[in-house]
């Protein structure tokens, strides 16, 4: 059971003491992703075939186990210059909103011109059935662009089939490497070495576990991962695309 502590203090203290290198995103060598997509001779795309997002404290700014009610009230505002839409939903007194990088990533994917061929899905170990219900309700309310919710975009990718792995009740578990990702691979037919995964990793190092356990035998490569201990920002989003492109380049 999680202790009712102040989240920001927990994250900052534990990160500083145990993983000081995780306080900052290490600058990476610049890679022209568009150029790689045009010139690469490999069958593997320079953008991931599947981009997987954790929800709590990664895609959005709240932890669903802390929410007390199904979201109902919406907050309208500017959707990153794309028009006015739902930028927040209230669960009781708690407002749930997408992180800046999350909105940018989802909007770029919705446009379909930069990351052509990429699909998205979710891998969240929501603590309780009610936490899962809150999360799913929020996904159906928060908008990417006016008139298109996060859930709409997810369903567009998969012809209205729900491939997302949300929760930890059987057949899921708290270990995403053992349950969420094998099920994602089965549901989507996409190889591990064609996936990119973002996770806050504040309650467990899901990125390292997934990267270590979910690999392909023929290439020895697995899921490219990026930790987002303070939520998915634009910098982490760009880093993830670069990290995946670097993995593709190493497989030539």
From TrEMBL:
GO MF term set: acid phosphatase activity
InterPro entries xref list: HAD_sf, MDP_1_eu_arc
Natural source organism: Helicotheca tamesis
Pfam families: Acid_PPase (PF12689)
Name this polypeptide is given: Magnesium-dependent phosphatase-1
Lineage of producing organism: Eukaryota, Sar, Stramenopiles, Ochrophyta, Bacillariophyta
Organism domain of life: Eukaryota
């Amino acid at each position: 059971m999680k202790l009712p502590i102040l989240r920001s203090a927990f994250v900052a203290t534990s990160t500083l003491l145990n993983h000081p290198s995780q306080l900052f995103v290490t600058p990476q060598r610049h890679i022209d992703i568009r150029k790689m997509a045009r010139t690469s001779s490999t069958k593997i795309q320079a953008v991931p075939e599947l981009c997987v997002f954790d929800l709590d404290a990664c895609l959005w700014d709240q932890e669903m186990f802390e929410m007390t009610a199904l979201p109902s009230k919406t907050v309208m505002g500017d959707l990153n210059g794309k028009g006015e839409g739902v930028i927040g939903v209230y669960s009781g007194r708690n407002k749930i909103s997408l992180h800046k990088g999350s909105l940018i990533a989802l909007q770029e994917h919705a446009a379909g011109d930069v990351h052509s061929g990429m699909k998205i899905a979710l891998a969240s170990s929501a603590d309780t059935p009610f936490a899962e219900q809150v999360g799913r309700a929020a996904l159906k309310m928060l908008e990417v662009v006016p008139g298109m919710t996060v859930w709409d975009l997810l369903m567009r990718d998969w012809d209205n089939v729900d491939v997302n792995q949300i929760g930890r009740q059987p057949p899921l578990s708290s270990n995403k490497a053992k349950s969420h990702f094998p099920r994602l691979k089965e549901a989507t037919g996409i190889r591990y070495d064609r996936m990119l995964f973002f996770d806050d990793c504040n309650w467990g190092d899901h990125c390292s576990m997934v990267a270590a356990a979910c690999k392909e035998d023929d290439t020895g490569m697995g899921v490219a991962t990026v930790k987002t201990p303070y939520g998915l920002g634009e910098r982490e989003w760009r880093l993830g695309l670069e990290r995946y492109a670097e993995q593709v380049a190493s497989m030539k």
